[in-house]
Amino acid sequence: MIRTYSPDNIGMAQICESDYGSITLHTLDSYEDHIKETEIDLIKIDVESSEKQVLLGSIIFFSKHKPLFYIDSFKGEKTYDFVLSFFTNLGYNKPFLSNDNYIFTP
């Protein structure tokens, strides 16, 4: 089921469990065998506080490919702290800011 938080902003939604059916989700790491070395230079996510789940499913991808990473997050949120730690541990530089968007560079 897809739950929206604001009728005026359908992009502000979340996938959640439901009795109405299922949605199959795949991680970036599950596509590793299909991704060539030079295919992806930039990843942008805006996943409404689900950053941790997305990144935990992409550790191999980011470790191997080292694309630029662009995220919409707010400093001080728990998700921002996790994202900062995740990319710092993978050897990325501290991010630079553009409004409330952060860009991590390898």
Highlighted features:
single chain, 106 residues, alpha+beta, 4-stranded mixed β-sheet, two-stranded antiparallel ribbon, 24% helix, 21% strand, globular
Report on this model:
The strands form two sheets. A four-stranded mixed β-sheet has the order 3-4-6-5, with no helix packed on it. The chain has a two-stranded antiparallel sheet with strand order 1-2. Helices cover 24% and strands 21% of the residues. The model has no long low-confidence stretch (mean pLDDT 80). The chain has one domain. Strand 5 (96-98) and strand 6 form a beta hairpin. It starts with a strand and ends with a strand. By secondary structure, it is an alpha+beta fold.
Number of separate domains: 1
Beta-strand proportion? 15-25%
Q: Which series of helices and strands comes N to C?
A: EEEHHEHEE
Helix proportion: 10-25%
Structural class: alpha+beta
Number of helices: 3
Number of strand segments: 6
Question: Low-confidence spans: pLDDT under 50, at least 5 residues?
Answer: none
Cα shape: globular
The averaged pLDDT comes out at 80
Please summarize the sheet with the most strands: 4 strands, mixed
Provide the spatial order of strands within the biggest beta sheet.
3-4-6-5
Question: Summary?
Answer:
The chain has 3 helices and 6 strands.
Compile the SSE list and pairings:
Blueprint (H helix, E strand, L loop, with lengths): L1 E3 L8 E3 L26 E4 L5 H6 L2 H7 L2 E5 L5 H12 L6 E3 L2 E4 L2
